[in-house]
Amino acid sequence: MGMYLNPGKQRFQIAINSEIYVDKTGLINHLNSVINTNQRYVSVSRPRRFGKTMAADMICAYYDRTADSREIFENRKIATNSDECVSPWDINLNKYDTIRLVMTDFIKTDVDVKESLKRLSRRILDELHQEYPSVTYEEDDFSFSFEKFYAESKRQYVIIIDEWDAIFRIRLDDKVGQKQYLDFLRDWLKDKEFVALAYMTGILPIKKYGEHSALNMFDEYSMTQPMQLAEYTGFTKSEVEKLCEVYNMDYSEIESWYDGYKVSDNVPVSKRQLYREGKYEGHIIDIYSPLSVVNAVSSGLIKNYWNKTESYEALAEYIRRDYDGLKEDVTLLMNGGSVKINTSSYQNDMTTFNSKDDILSLLIHLGYLGFDDNTNEVYIPNEEVMDVFKVSTQNKEWVGYFKAFEKSEELLKYTWVCDENKVADLLEEFHNKASNKPDFKRHSCIIEKA
């Protein structure tokens, strides 16, 4: 067992030994269906607290040829719910050389990216050489050396990369380093016979340059389009109901505080005509924030657990950006509204923003906003996230926006009941404020949204 090559099952064993463990082993059935196909490149992006690392540990434990993990999986959902007509659940159990990387171990603020990649290459090649000592390799040519080890062993690899997007979060402005990193991954993995499965997980989808993905061989399963992996994005309703029953928790409170993420699975072939007719929504799944649910049911306390993994300043920094209409949209969202956005221009990083839609798209991937892919609208998903928004908008720059929204609601109410005097008074008040301060556009924008 190595640190990177065939790291074993211990990490996953620790997870299932925990007091609260929710079985997501069914994910492996999907991976088994794409292994050694053109769809063998899988990129999964989710917010923090949504179980990315546990999934990576689980995949290691299943595929690692040294792990001897049948006992772990044989009574799990992968075995009990597996469709034997497709393939046996254990068809790939402990069959592959497995490489597991956590990119935050290598990408550092004070280390040049080229040096970080050399360190990564050196460590993996060193472990491969320990396993296959007869192979001579070139330390300066990682991809070619990998090919040589494969030619000797005839064993394919399952390659698991956790925190794959660390470079875009740790070295935000290092465009040169980011390109070197993406080129490294592409040269190592793309169209390589030794890759049985490549599984990457992180917060951000794969970085775009213009309209194109830098790693276009990957199928992406994100918060806006999780497809077949929708039920593995977080905890499902049935999983949370079961936890509430075991731990004597009020399900409605848990739902109010930690639910709200709606994701879309693939529409079954037999239901697609009904879907086209607007008569089928069975592919839409409610997803709950896993870590918050675990904290709540284990402690018995319904409260905001978000600040254990995120600071309020992170959200505040994004929503105060000076993009036309952004603060008005945030005000509307905080009052229970939803906002239609275009996610296509977002470049899948944390610095390239050209409009408010790019900011709001990032907030989907960070878990601050839910996304309805039927209407292309964003919304604040639950009480926990609303609490984060409230703290992040406490400074005085937001006061005018909230007051304007309150007035717009008044105007809407009196317009609805045809109280022409109140409507006239409010319009005059807006006009007077616009005459004294250059904020009439702000008020009128919020009124229009309301």
Low-confidence stretches: 437-447
Look at the structure and give the CATH class of the largest domain. Alpha Beta
Please provide the count of β strands. Answer: 13
Beta percentage is 5-15%
CATH topology value of the largest domain: Rossmann fold
Q: What about the largest sheet?
A: 5 strands, parallel
Query: What is the SS-derived class?
Result: alpha/beta
* Spatial extent as radius of gyration: 25 Å
Domain unit count = 3
Shape label: globular
Query: How widely separated are the two ends?
Result: 60 Å
Number of helices: 20
- In the CATH hierarchy, what is the architecture of the largest domain at level 2? 3-Layer(aba) Sandwich
Average pLDDT number: 88
User: What topology, given as strand order, has the largest sheet?
Assistant: 2-3-4-1-7
Give the proportion of residues in helices: 40-55%
Protein model, in words:
- It is a single chain.
- The chain is an alpha/beta fold and 450 residues long.
- The protein has three domains: 10-221, Rossmann fold, CATH 3.40.50; 229-303, no CATH class; 396-449.
- It is 45% helix and 11% strand.
- The strands form four sheets. A five-stranded parallel sheet has the order 2-3-4-1-7, with helices on one face. Strands 8-10-9 form a three-stranded antiparallel sheet.
- The N and C termini lie far apart (60 Å).
